[in-house]
Amino acid sequence: MLTSESGTAAAPLRPGGSLERWVERHLRFLMLGPTVLILLGLTIFPSIYMFYAAVHKISPNPDLPWTFVGAGNFVRLFSDTQFHVALWNTTVFTIAAVTAEFVLGLGLALLLDKYIRKLTFLKTVLMIPMMLPPIAVAITWKLIYEPQFGVLNEIMFRLGLPLQAWAGDVNLAMFSIIVADVWQWTPFIFLLMLAGLASLPVEPYEAAALDGASSWQQFRDLTLPFLKPVIAIALLLRVMDALRLFDLVFILTGGGPADRTKVLSLYIYQVAYRFADPGYAAAMSLFVLFVTIVLSTWFMKRMRLAE
């Protein structure tokens, strides 16, 4: 402690002034400030704007005022046959694509984890499709499906099989889109499953082997229960992404033929920009958001109850 010349104790020195003390007290808020501003600009404000637009009739003429219609845009969803078609196509695509990706991804992860663990380069090769831009993937598959000069029809010709208009056939268009999506996003499931398998404990498997449990029994009674949290995350992320499919459909088929591949994201785009009805498009976007939230909540609750 410092003392003065008279021998009395002097008051301790305080570093900094009032500004420094204020900054120290509010430092956490100051550091969160830029993040909050970015969140407001990129997420919260557009969401509020979309809610506002969904209850209005918006004219293509920017000089005309918006007309409040309340729930009119949402009621319109029940009578819009094109919306029903897009909803059905989205459901079919989501179920088929995510199921195929999960089965293939889990199978590849089990195969590489158990039998060919040392082939690290093969794991890298399998993850390449996931790292490609969706537009590049869509253009690549468009060239593959090209009826006259595409690689796939060339293979069919050499095998003596009939040529197909893959993306232009009403019976094959959705299948073609599902195949392209499975090719791109199976590596995502594979990567998550491989990480989950690498984190599994060894002791339960050793005990099961001593008890004479077969490989299938170990997989059913040990691997699947241990992987349940990883499986839940993988399926949830893929379902959420599949519900907003746009790139592949827009480039490969444009929603055709005969609306067989028209999905919700594409229809929302058409309503907003081709039909110049952004209010109705906002209502459909909110419907997709609501369905995604409901499915996510239900799925997570089911996974917790199954634990």
UniProtKB/TrEMBL annotation:
**Which keywords, in A-to-Z order, does the entry hold?**
Cell membrane, Membrane, Sugar transport, Transmembrane, Transmembrane helix, Transport
The protein's matches in SUPFAM superfamilies, at most eight in alphabetical order, are given as: MetI-like
Annotated localization: Cell membrane
Q: Does the keyword Hydrolase apply?
A: no
A GO BP entry is: transmembrane transport
- Topological type in the membrane: Multi-pass membrane protein
Primary localization class, coarse: membrane
**Which InterPro entries does the record cross-reference, listed alphabetically?**
MetI-like (IPR000515), MetI-like_sf (IPR035906)
- One Gene Ontology CC term in the entry: plasma membrane
- Chain ranges passing through the membrane: 29-52, 86-112, 124-144, 182-202, 222-240, 280-300
Matches recorded under PROSITE patterns:
ABC_TM1
For the keyword Transport, the answer is: yes
ABC transmembrane type-1 domain residues are: 87-299
To which protein family does this belong? Belongs to the binding-protein-dependent transport system permease family.
Q: What is this protein called?
A: Putative sugar transporter subunit: permease component of ABC superfamily transporter
